[in-house]
Amino acid sequence: MKTRVIVIGFGFMGQTHVGSLLNMPDAELAGIVDPVDPKERLTTITGNCATERVSPEEIGAIRHFRSLEEALQASYSDAAIIALPTKLHYDAVIQCLKAGLHVMVEKPFAISLMECDHMVRTAEETDKLLAVGYVVRRMKEYQFLKQTIESGRLGNLKYLKMTRITGIPNWGNWNDPEFIRTSGGSLFDLVSHDIDFARFCLGEPEKIEVIKNLGGGQFKMISSIMRFRETDAVIEGGFVTPAGHPFSRTYAAYFENGTLVSSTPGKVTEYRNDKTVEHDFLPDNPYFTEAEDFIRAIRTGDASRICTGRDARETIECCTRIAEAIGYPLPEMKERNLL
Phi/psi at 46 (nearest 5 deg)? Predict the structure, then answer.
């Protein structure tokens, strides 16, 4: 029997996850939850990178629910993938967990550590899987970096630099100051990918220092250094002008006996004393792999390949430390009624 999944939010990432589920043999798309007709969404939504998308014909027979409450009552689902604006994550996650669904929620998990903690506790109390979509962990060039660090084949990692830069988003509500504030801005929405991956490779940082903070509001570029026991990682990124500035993600990893450089998705150049090697990974869809790992974890109980809510909570703590250091105006989160 297939795992029945509802997708909550049919913006750019919601459409990406729908495209994955439609091509997954062990999953069935049980419904799309969005206040707007999905076919209308397909004509208006854009994003910052190419992902698996869907056509109106592919979703023609999929049930459309205008509210989460309606979907929870009528979809008879096993799991939910939540792709809503960050400020809506908490309520949707809690509702789904308490309704008996396993949950994968898009990054960032939340921008309130209190909300992160309560979502994690609720998942444990309901004995449901809670995953967070830090998809960089599933990208081949980044997996290659992690494998190189763990194998020690180039010696110890001495220094790591990661960047993630894009133009001011022209999707979502990124011209609305309140939306920016409640999303955590570029720090939580964009740069947290590399903060998460540095943790994934190197463990928890002993110290985090801010090197530079440029501009305010959505035009924010942040450079910080995460100090680990045996190495340092510089994480830099943010939104820049103009909006048409192309999205880019890069890393340079300096080892005792060589260097890895990735400036193009799917490609890594390895420099050693004796030769230079070009690693060109076959095209794949990390979003599909991420969703597939979530479905597999539900079916087998093995959560080793997903980013759990408890793990993602530590990434949010790192982001919060940076936000506090630069005086970033995170919204005040009043304690909710958690009964």
Answer: -130, 170
